[in-house]
Amino acid sequence: MSENTFCAARRRILANRITVRGFNGGTATNKGENQSAMIREILEYPDPRLRTIAKPVDEVTDDIRTLIDDMFETMYDANGIGLAATQIDVHKQVIVMDLSEDKSEPRVFINPKVEVLDGDLEAMQEGCLSVPGFYEDVKRIEHCRITAKDRNGEEFVLEAEGLLAVCIQHEMDHLNGKLFVDYLSQLKRSRIRKKLEKLHKQSA
Ligand code: QAP
Ligand code: CO
């Protein structure tokens, strides 16, 4: 994947969403713009709360569905493609994702488990809503099978490759308190940390 693929893909996704909004003449019919859902604050690296290990969800209740709605609202508002509950300081095993250009493919993963189907590693440029403005190559398993529950508590199995496989592994890392910067060299990671700390001080 080339250097600018991530940015280009995001620009494309954004341009498309703006068009969709214009077409509808409003936001009411757009998925992820649920009237009652709330945009939550996204924790940013190096916030120590991002290191918390998430607990499995016992039962998919209305409270969990409210959490899911808020997570979509927060992710779409920030122009993200994936968000783990950890990132909004809720330490439950819940992930939301939408890799489409028009918010048409919302996906929910509750208590996800990953099984390696092909141990080959593939490098892809990653970003993270908790590490805004930084994009780096990370090597991850190319082909995996995910078992998880959906928003109705139904179990499903999904084979993933490409961006979907990368994104699910990235988000599952969040549930285990891990960030993509942990895969980088110490030097790169500390540069990112220092730049973000400086920004946080400025906006405090
Ligand atoms: C994880 O990341 C991911 O820095 C999801 O200024 C990303 O949604 C997995 C974002 C890439 C695989 C490949 C980041 C938005 C979004 C930023 C995201 C930013 C605005 C990141
Ligand atoms: Co992330």
From TrEMBL:
Name the Gene Ontology molecular function terms of this record. Answer: metal ion binding; peptide deformylase activity
| Requisite cofactors | Fe(2+)
Spell out where the chain crosses the membrane: none
EC number assigned by the record:
3.5.1.88
Biological process, per Gene Ontology: translation
Which keywords has UniProt assigned to this entry? Answer: Hydrolase, Iron, Metal-binding, Protein biosynthesis
Describe cofactor binding as the record notes it: Binds 1 Fe(2+) ion.
Quote the catalytic activity from the record. N-terminal N-formyl-L-methionyl-[peptide] + H2O = N-terminal L-methionyl-[peptide] + formate
What is annotated as the active site?
171
Looking up CDD domains in the UniProt record yields: Pep_deformylase (cd00487)
**Per the record's keyword annotation, is Protease included, yes or no?**
no
User: Has the keyword Hydrolase been applied to this entry?
Assistant: yes
SUPFAM superfamilies recorded for this chain? Peptide deformylase
> What's its top-level EC category?
hydrolase
Superkingdom of origin organism: Bacteria
Q: Which residues bind Fe cation?
A: 128, 170, 174
> What family, per the record?
Belongs to the polypeptide deformylase family.
Fetch the HAMAP family from UniProt: Pep_deformylase
The record's listing under NCBIfam families reads: pept_deformyl, PRK00150.1-3
* Protein name in the entry: Peptide deformylase
